[in-house]
Amino acid sequence: GRVVFVISEKCSVLLEPACRMLALCNQLSDGGKSVTIDFTACSSALKYLDRAGFFDSLGSSCAVLPKRPKSSRAKKYKGNSGNLVEFGLIDPASGEDDLNESDKNLVNQLTESFVKLVDKDYEEVASVIFAELIGNIKRHSQSELQGIAGLQRYTGRRQHIQTIVSDSGVGIATTLKTGLETHYPDLYKKREQDDYDLFIVEAALTKGE
After folding, report:
1. What pLDDT, in 10s, does the model give residues 38-84?
2. Does the pLDDT value for residue 126 go beyond 90?
3. What is the mean pLDDT of residues 6-32?
4. Crossing angle of helices 101-117/123-140, nearest 10°?
5. Nearest of 45, 147, 130 to residue 94 by alpha carbon
6. Upstream peptide bond of 66 is cis (omega within 30 degrees of 0)
């Protein structure tokens, strides 16, 4: 009934695994588990996650060692970094199909940061993608836990951008499977293959419909 995550010395936590850990902690806590994250050996990871908004989204019943930050650096410095969009929350339980003002602001933050780091030509397509992913959380999540979105640019030898739009719902693959047998029997017939979930998501993204 008790789960403890220990962040090791000199651990560099990237945005994507941070988002996965955040979602998992909230899911475990929602399921009645006692959750602790221990940053005692790695204060730098705690400072980064505080700046990214991790603790603003972490359930209040989850314990943090040596202690949870008293105030949020993400809220204090929000929007001040050209390389980071702090974790934004998406409420799937709002019962709305359309994006509310908070959702639209999050889409704009992600789009503006992405375009500044890449190219103005991508503004329209980036906005559409972020809006669609956030809208899907509101329409299809089937979870009361909040979704999360964020962006981080990484420099160094492998320069890249990580963008996260995540929820604790049933997942894209499960949503896609509901109509396959009736409407896409050719895809449905391949359901026994090992990478079937990845296969149908890829099919949806590349072939559409």
Report:
1. 999 999 999 999 999 999 999 999 999 999 999 999 999 999 999 99
2. yes
3. 94
4. 140
5. 147
6. yes
Give me the residue label for tokens 């929000």: 78
The CA distance from 201 to 180, in Å, is 12
* Mean pLDDT computed over 190-196: 92
One-letter amino acid for residue 23 of the chain: A
Distance CA 113, CA 123 (A): 10
Query: How many Cα neighbours within 13 Å face the side chain of 204?
Result: 15
Task: State mean pLDDT over 106-130.
Answer: 95
49/52 Cα distance (integer angstroms): 5
Distance CA 10, CA 39 (A): 11
State the Cα torsion 128-140-168-201 to the nearest 10°.
Answer: -70
Please report the sign of the dihedral spanned by the C-alpha atoms of residue 14, residue 15, residue 16, residue 21: positive
Structure confidence at residue 95 as a pLDDT band (50, 70, 90): low
Tokens of 178: 């509901």
Q: How far is Cα 174 from Cα 66, in angstroms, rounded to an integer?
A: 39
Report CA torsion sign: 99, 209, 149, 118. negative
Rounded Cα gap, residues 94 and 102, in angstroms: 12
The CB density around residue 150, as the number of other CB atoms within 10 Å, is 28
